Fold:
Amino acid sequence: MSTEPETTPSSEAESAVPLEVSKPTTPEEMDRYECRSCGYAYEPVKGDSRAHIPIGVPFQDLPPGWRCPICGAPTSQFSNIGPKGAPSGFKENLKYGFGVNALTPGQKNLLIFGSLAIAVMFFLSLYGLR
Ligand code: FE
Structure:
């Protein structure tokens, strides 16, 4: 009988479960919240200078009396619209669309206008035919 504590299985299980989404550390990774009444979006990247909220304060950590700076709606009237530059749409739909749904707006722009530019170049190249 050994008195050595069996830490291997539990520590292995802990390291094998990184499924828990890590807390965002930078303001860019934090979720933005949009006022459902007026469309104002609280962005941790900007903070709220009128209410003296510094940059980098997540929406959850706003003071209880904080209200929409545009229309005065309470925080309960805000809905999570995710971080900036994240793929738009519901998360459960991101796996559809041959992977296109998971692209960020910037990647979609590059795909659309890049392929348009290639098509224009192709048609212009037809002038090179004899
Ligand atoms: Fe508002």
